[in-house]
Structure formats: C-alpha cells, structure tokens
Amino acid sequence: MQDLRPLFFPRVISQATHTKKESTVRKIASVVILFTVLSLSSFVFVPTASAEDVKMVGAISKIELPADGKSVTAILKDSKTGEAVKIVVTDELTLDKFNDKRIVVGDEIRCKFETVDGINTSKMFKKTAGC
Fold first, then answer.
1. For residue range 52-61, what is the model confidence (pLDDT) as tens digits?
2. CA 40-53-92 angle, 5° bins
C-alpha cells in the first residue's frame, strides 16, 4: 500500500524538503519586511514640517486695535535682544483682554508665535504675572 501521509499531512513534506538556503532566504525576507514596516511607521509619528514656534518674553511697546476687532497687532520689545517684534493676536480670549484693557502698553508678556509668510501669528500670549 502506498504511503498516504503526504496527502493528509502536507506540512510534513514541506518541512522535510526545507533546506538551509530556503531558511536563510526566509530570514532575510522577514528582516527586510520588519525594517520596512518600522521605517514606515516612524513617519506616522513624526509631526509634519511646519513653521517653528518661537518663544519670547518682552514688554509691549505699542498696541494696534483695528476697527473690525478680529485681530490685534502688538509690538513687543524682546527682553533678550532688545529688538521690536510685531505679533498678530487672533484668539478670542486674548482679544477680550485687550478690549477690557487688562493687557496694556508696558505689560511684560510671555508669548509663543509662528512665522508664516512673514507674519508672526501668536499661539500663546500671556502676562508673565498671570492673567
């Protein structure tokens, strides 16, 4: 009678015919696949390239309140370099502080802003004393 094991147990045949060369090729292929997956997944966690946030502390030397009330331009004198930096503020909470005169000329401000197309747009604009 013919041996029927290969018909019912095909893995036995593949393991029996498995050579060292095939094992090496499988290991290399698995390492290449693992490296590809890891390198592609690292791009998921890398933030997109955007304008870099700049942090600064300085005193307000001038405030420009436009008639529309949708933004305020504040000129701050950087405490480290002494240069004047023009910053556009658009968030509602800070705009309310400008309108209520809680932020005025001479206040020391801690801010974070990004420069897009030559315009410094604030991301954070707070008095150093609180507020």
1. 788 999 999 9
2. 115
75 and 38 assigned to the same domain: no
In order of 24, 90, 119, the CA distances from 65 in angstroms are 72, 11, 17
Contact indicator for 71, 90 with CB cutoff of 8 Å: yes
Choice among 19-23, 27-31, 74-78, 125-129 with the minimum mean pLDDT: 19-23
The H or E element spanning position 70 is none
Q: Which residues contact 61 (CB under 8 A, 6 or more apart)?
A: 75, 76, 77, 84, 105
Instruction: List the CATH number of the domain containing 116.
Output: 2.40.50.140
Q: Residue 79 belongs to what domain range?
A: 53-127
* d(C-alpha 38, C-alpha 36), whole Å: 6
- What's residue 18's pLDDT? 57
CB–CB of 111/121 below 8 Å?
A: no
pTM to 2 decimal places: 0.58
